[in-house]
Description:
The protein contains 11 helices and 11 strands. By secondary structure, the chain is of the alpha/beta class. The model is unreliable at 128-180, 184-194 and 342-372 (pLDDT under 50). The strands form 3 sheets. A 7-stranded mixed sheet has the order 7-6-3-8-9-11-10, sandwiched between helices. Strands 1-2 form a two-stranded antiparallel sheet. A two-stranded antiparallel ribbon has the order 4-5. Helix 2 runs antiparallel to helix 3 and helix 10 (277-289) packs parallel to helix 11. It is 27% helix and 17% strand. It binds S-adenosylmethionine.
Amino acid sequence: MGALRGGGCVFAEEEAAVILEAAGGDGGELERLVRERVAGRPLEHLVGWAAFAGLRVVVEAGVFVPRRRTELLVREAVREAPDGAVVVDLCCGSGAIGAAIAAYGEGRIRLTTDADGDTVFEAVPAGGERGRGGAVGPARDGEAGDAGGGGADGERGGGADGGPGRGGFGAVDTDGEGEWGGFGVVDGDGEGGRGGFEVVAADVDGAAVASARRNLGAGRVFQGDLFGALPVGLRGRVDVLVVNAPYVPSAAIATMPAEARLHEAGIALDGGGDGLDVQRRIVAGAREWLSPGGRLLIETSEDQAPLTSALFEAAGLAPRVVRDESLDATVVVGHAGARAPQRECGTTAPGHQGARCSRRDGKPERTSRRAD
Length: 372
Ligand SMILES: C[S@@+](CC[C@H](N)C(=O)[O-])C[C@H]1O[C@@H](n2cnc3c(N)ncnc32)[C@H](O)[C@@H]1O
C-alpha cells in the first residue's frame, strides 16, 4: 500500500484490496500490478473491471472506464422505461449503462439510499441461483481535476457485486436486417421482481464492442457509426435511447487527467469544438429510431446542458434537465410526444392487462417497476 500511496494513488487502501484480489496470491503478479498502477495505468484496466451501479463491469485496455456520475443516466433511464421497453445504449463503450439497465430490469441491482442520504444502486444480496455477492467496492472519486465539463474526469467508483459474468439471453438477431424479432424480455431469476427490458448496445470502437459483448452478451452489441450500427428493424421501436457520447471540447482534452488522456481512446473523449459534435448527430437522428412517446436521455455537463437542451428543442424532443449535485452529474431527458399504448403481449391469462399488457414472455404484467 505504501508504494501505491507514494505513487500518488488517492484511494490507496481501496486500490490495494482490489489489486490483491486480482493478483490471486501470486507475488510476481502483485508486484507487476503495483508497478503498473504506480506508473499511471488505470486500476480498472489493470484488473479488467470497473465498479458501476452495483455491478462489476468488464473494461478492457483502452476502453472508456465508466464514471460514477453516469449512474444518474441509468437512474433516469429506468425511471422512464416502461415494462418490456426496448432500450438502446448508443456509444456504449464497455456497455456499462446497458448492463446496469438490464440488471435493474432483472432485479439484480436496486436503488437505495446511502448513509449520506444519496440515492445509489446496490447489488441485490445473493440469493439462490443468482449467487452474487453484496456491494463491496469503495467509491473512487475526486481524482485529479475535471476536464472542464467533459464526460471524462477522474471520478469513478461505486459498489461491486460478485462478478461480471452474465447468463444467456435467448434468441438474437444479429444480421441487422429485416423485422426486429427482439430478444424476449430478460428476467434474471425466473420469478423476478421486474418486468425486464430488451437492451441493445452499439459503439464504433472494436475494443469497446468486445468489452460490451462480455457485459451484455455478444448478440446484443453492434459495431458501427451511431445509428448505422443498429438493426434496421429497431427503427421506430426504441422506447429509451440512452447515451453517454464523448462531450469534452477538443481543446479541453489536454487538461484532462493523464489516466484518461493516455489510456482511454481519443474517440471516447473528444466531442469536437464545443464538445457537442456527436450529441448533435444523435439528437438529429433520434426521432427516426424512437417509438411514439419514446425517450432520449443524454449525459452532458452542467455548463453544456443549455446547448444540449437546445438541440433537443430543435429536434422536437421536449427537454428537461436533471441534475444530481452529489454525483456532479447532468442528464437531459427528452420525449417524442405522448407515449403510444403499450404493445400487446398476446395472452389473456390472469395477471395480464389485455391490450395494455407489454409483457412478451407470457408472465403476468407488473406495473410497479419505477425507481421511485
Ligand atoms: C464517453 S465514452 C462513454 C462510454 C459509455 N457510454 C460509458 O458511459 O461508459 C463515449 C463512447 O462513444 C463511442 N463513440 C464515439 N463516436 C462514436 C460514433 N460515431 N459512433 C458510435 N460510437 C461512438 C466511443 O467509442 C466511446 O466508447
